[in-house]
Amino acid sequence: MIKRQLLWATLAWTLSAEARPPTNTPADSGRPVVIGRSYTVPSKILGGKRRVNVYLPPGYADAKRSFPVLYLLDGGEAEDFHHITGLAQVAAFNGKTQEMIVVGIEGVDRKHDLTHPSKVPRDLELLPTSGGSAAYRRFLVEELKPWVAARYRTSGRTALIGESLAGLFVTETFLRAPGSFDDYIAVSPSLWWEDEALSKEAAADLRSGGFRGRRLYLGIGNEGGEMRTGIDRLVQALKDDGPDGLDWRFDPRPDERHDTIYHPAALAAIRALFPVPDK
Predict the structure, then answer these.
(1) Cβ distance 129 to 88 under 8 Å?
(2) Closest residue by Cα to residue 95 from 145, 47, 59, 139
(3) Class for the domain spanning 35-273
(4) Residues 27, 20: contact at Cβ < 8 Å?
(5) From residue 194, how far is each of 123, 130, 191, 224 by CA, in Å?
């Protein structure tokens, strides 16, 4: 009888212990903090699905107005989605910028998706899966943008933002397919790719047309070598051959490194391109 009572007492204690939260967890489990929603978007162009994260500004639920859309490369939850949406939120909250929708596209193989083809041996050794930017751009323009426009109140104004290899993709898209987006934010773009071919061909691209009404923000840290020569060549081409109707600005930040520039440069770009309209 004593053994049976002891058994039941032990079982009851075990069950109650399992029901209790761990000692390092608050008794009140709280509530989730939600900054967006995540979707999978099918793509015939890429032959599969891509993960897309969407942030809506606080004013979206109560407003009937439409909003510009910022398309964020490397926009996964473990990539740049959190800090870029944070910048968009705080800048609008402080009255410095317009509210905007942020659409983050999660990376799968960024070395493939964000680079145009190169035959340079060094490039092929560093990034053996490279060369998929054309198809990735088609996915963004032909599939993702219509998907977003069908679901959200968009103003029709679209911007593309990216850093490093993503900045290379932004710059390529701006120069070679300027009609893809209205605004371009390229932070520390990897213009060393393909022996700096993109910057070397920039003057010819700028003369090809399609830039009226476009806006470009270029930023770079204290990066020398091919990173700097490529962007300096691009800036010179913009000065010499910048077409009428193109609004561009160059924002060098010598106090920042390649791994620290994105946050401050992105905030400056958002403020510059999306100011609160004069009433």
Answers:
(1) no
(2) 59
(3) alpha beta
(4) no
(5) 7, 11, 8, 17
Place of tokens 């770079």: 220
- From first to last of its 279 residues, the chain has per-residue pLDDT tens of 433 343 333 333 333 443 444 556 566 788 888 899 999 999 999 999 999 999 999 989 887 899 999 999 999 999 999 999 999 999 898 888 999 999 999 999 999 999 999 999 999 999 999 999 999 999 999 999 999 999 999 999 999 999 999 999 999 999 999 999 999 999 999 999 999 999 999 999 999 999 999 999 999 999 988 889 999 999 999 999 899 999 999 999 999 999 999 999 999 999 999 998 776
- Say how far apart CA 279 and CA 276 lie, in whole Å: 9
Phi, psi of 11 (to 5 degrees): -65, -45
